[in-house]
Amino acid sequence: MSAAAARVSHSAQAIRSFRKPPKIRKFLKRDENGLPVPHVRNLIVRDTHPCRLMDHYHTALQDTLMYMTYNHESGTPSSPRQIRLTYDPNDPYTKNRYNPPVGGSQAGKKPAPPTTSQNIVHLEKIVIHSMMKEALTNRSNLLGLIAAFRAMSGETESGGGRPSSSGVQIVKGKKNVGGWMRPGIPIGAKVELKGPKMYDFLNTLVEFVLPRIREFPGIVMPPASSTMKSPSGVAGVVSFGLPPEAMGYFPQIEVNLDSYPKPYGMHIHFVTNAVGLGAQNRARALVSGFQIPFARK
Length: 297
Prior knowledge:
The structure is a single chain. By secondary structure, this protein is an alpha+beta fold. Helix content is 24%, strand content 15%. It has six helices and nine strands. A hairpin with a 5-residue loop joins β1 (29-30) and β2. The longest helix has 18 residues, at 52-69.
């Protein structure tokens, strides 16, 4: 028998031989949620690949937004106007009375901060949330929604050794609404995405989901005659909703769509650092730079 034939027969015997698995000498400890805790401490999962959209923002989009949103202010800036209250706060007869400012709420009149290279508008986080009315009768109906959000976002509680990762959170009611919602009752779920996972979700949304939605005009904007001095106009948050059939377009869901009870609709919020007057327009300029269309009513 040649040496090559001997090696082949030896490898075949090694493949056919089965041994008993080693005995577990030390069982894993369990945390307060009943999940096993590995023996390895401080296990941190690093990035396995560069984030394309993050590089696109830092190399191309950031400079363009600086040019588009720059507001040159010549001279010394004027001091902010002192807000006058309705009643004198030193008057003992109106000390405990509700004392709003004259002219109504000042939330929509907050001026934008000076434009610098340090406060260029950028994404802080993406929040995905959905409500299920069926959860009011049986909270176990939220299991399908929680599993879908975990598959789409890839977020788990303290996943990858990141304490800031809160995973999929259960949303509970805060007040009574029409007799069918009570405080503390689970009514939905939400997940917050930050860092590379945020850009990965945005990449999946732009390349796989939105192009496959039939007759998707884009994020609907308010009429041009609407005022931008409302609280939502100075918030810097861009929000829109997706129909239930859009959940099946995510590759993480489409590969195993039959495992979920039904498709779920969702709301997506792009939270930026833009504040003050014109914050909504600066946030829309940022989101449109990631190839998300907008449409006017």
